[in-house]
UniProtKB/TrEMBL annotation:
<feature type="transmembrane region" description="Helical">
    <location>
        <begin position="383"/>
        <end position="405"/>
    </location>
</feature>
<keyword id="KW-1133">Transmembrane helix</keyword>
<dbReference type="GO" id="GO:0006857">
    <property type="term" value="P:oligopeptide transport"/>
</dbReference>
<feature type="transmembrane region" description="Helical">
    <location>
        <begin position="464"/>
        <end position="481"/>
    </location>
</feature>
<dbReference type="GO" id="GO:0055085">
    <property type="term" value="P:transmembrane transport"/>
</dbReference>
<feature type="transmembrane region" description="Helical">
    <location>
        <begin position="545"/>
        <end position="566"/>
    </location>
</feature>
<dbReference type="InterPro" id="IPR018456">
    <property type="entry name" value="PTR2_symporter_CS"/>
</dbReference>
<feature type="compositionally biased region" description="Basic and acidic residues">
    <location>
        <begin position="1"/>
        <end position="10"/>
    </location>
</feature>
<dbReference type="GO" id="GO:0016020">
    <property type="term" value="C:membrane"/>
</dbReference>
<feature type="transmembrane region" description="Helical">
    <location>
        <begin position="425"/>
        <end position="443"/>
    </location>
</feature>
<feature type="transmembrane region" description="Helical">
    <location>
        <begin position="264"/>
        <end position="284"/>
    </location>
</feature>
<comment type="similarity">
    <text>Belongs to the major facilitator superfamily. Proton-dependent oligopeptide transporter (POT/PTR) (TC 2.A.17) family.</text>
</comment>
<feature type="region of interest" description="Disordered">
    <location>
        <begin position="1"/>
        <end position="27"/>
    </location>
</feature>
<feature type="transmembrane region" description="Helical">
    <location>
        <begin position="89"/>
        <end position="106"/>
    </location>
</feature>
<keyword id="KW-0812">Transmembrane</keyword>
<feature type="region of interest" description="Disordered">
    <location>
        <begin position="623"/>
        <end position="656"/>
    </location>
</feature>
<feature type="transmembrane region" description="Helical">
    <location>
        <begin position="592"/>
        <end position="612"/>
    </location>
</feature>
Amino acid sequence: MGSKEREIKSPEVQLGENNSDSGKRGSKKLGIYFIESDSRRTPLGRGYSAGVGGATPVNIHGKPIRDMSKTGGWIAALFIFGNEMAERMAYFGLSVNMVAFMFYVMHRPFSSSANAVNNFLGISQASSVLGGFIADAYLGRYWTIAIFTTIYLAGLTGITLLATMKVFAPNQEGCDQIALLLGNCKPAKSWQMTYLYTVLYVTGFGAAGIRPCVSSFGADQFDERSRNYRSHLDRFFNFFYLSVTVGAIVAFTAVVYIQIKHGWGAAFGSLAIAMGLSNMLFFAGTPLYRHRLPGGSPLTRVAQVLVAAFRKRNASFQSSEFVGLYELPGKRSAIKGSNKIAHTDDFRCLDKAALQLKEDDGTNPWRLCTVTQVEEVKILLKLIPIPSCTIMINVILTEFLTLSVQQAYTLNTYMGHLKLPVTCMPVFPGLSIFLLLSLYYSVFVPISRRITGNPHGASQLQRVGIGLAVSILSVAWAGVFERYRRTYAIQHEYEASFLTPMPDLSAYWLLIQYCLIGIAEVFCIVGLLEFLYEEAPDAMRSIGSAYAAVAGGLGCFAASILNTVVKSVTRGKGERRESWLSQNINTGRFDYFYWLLTIMSVINFAAFLYAANRYQYRTKDEIQTTDRSSENGPGSDHTSTNASDPVRTPKLSVVG
């Protein structure tokens, strides 16, 4: 190729030099060696800023940070916590209030209002991959957050205007509770609903851009080379979810109180004000933040790997034309913001994208990709089963948000002389999360450390598994209690009065399922976020974090689809036309529906155990680069990074 080439030998080859038999066995593996070429250009034809390589933190101008002690760390993370707290407050404030707003103010049926909000929540989460793509490809996480928080604020302002100005809502005269139940209230005009959906989805679009970036940007503030990095990262994700929980608690209490006392306009306005203040707080921390360079379009890199592998699908690794697997020399990879990734034997068909034949000159990334680029695609594929198994817990969370509120309307919500609004009931999962996170390091970690031997108490996948198991208990209990509540309502002649609370049956029996699902959420979602951040490729961490949001969005969509299917299948013929999910909860069969969710959750848990058992944590190998003339002597440059899992692999030597 007219350029200096280097050979990267695997541990099998090194052993083979001392044992010819083992060398022959090792020569059959793909990871034996691959050729590096100085003529290789980056996937998008761009180079590096001076002095910047790999995953080196930079300042807002893209320059290396000279004094790391003045940036990042917990102080910078506090500004990010504040932004996430306000964003979650707005998100949960909308989710808990918008169903009631559409029912009481816009005069939409309760079931269609719930489905509309579920779709809004689903779209805002599922489209988070767009925010992750923009951050990883072009803008970086900071500017993506800055732009989309502004869009979020614009959407909240539009919702506040909707709730404040009468022109945007239908006439409310003569629309009492009986008229609402009978559907006799004047419906909203088409343009009014269009405006509502427009501002609602603008808000969702803003949330979609923020969600995959905030947790990753916060984790970027900690130095990977620090001895305490794993401990800091573990605590960061717990405190991050604590800020999410605080935002949810405020939404379920203070915002609901404002709505009851001062109306819908004041409630939604408080969310807009909180978001505006959080934006100011986020921008105030700008001098303290550490940034990672965007690595170019991840979709382009994925497409290049797939195209190159397809073009060489008929090439053989045993062919005489086979030169090696292709990589760049030195410590830098072809992808900005990323370290090199060692070759693995998974998805061997994709290795053909890095298969260098004699006619390849290394200048066309659509024909020849680096090993690191191929391994990025492999990692993205290997991650998919784990977040996919968390879709089910998001289905349960979505169903609880609406079905449990319907249950609470039939129950006594008095706490002594204090009557708790029904819309405040979802605060109890938040309180259980807050309590659990507060006790996590003092109670759970020491106990589980003795059982598992893991210094962090439990591995990331173990925590996800614990969360999924507890979610099964939560939804199973919900079915048991709903059967008791329905039987009680029928026996005491409340069957037709599904909006009348039964004074002798307390709503606080719902606390059991609420607290269990809160515990499940802590273990599952926090473990998943940390897992995705550590396991995702360096230049695709926002997209990795978006996997969790996409799973949440698919859970919302799945809940809506499941509701529709169950209503259609279980609706009776003739005189009895009530489905399991009847608007009259006392004539419906919510208990059957909860048990259906229980069965689905058990099947999902079995699938998770299979996927988790097969998954191997990614290891970050120590790569050493030397010249051939002095491969055992001094003068070699190397980088060393701690592995993210106790299981270590041998070193990968780069010999020139």
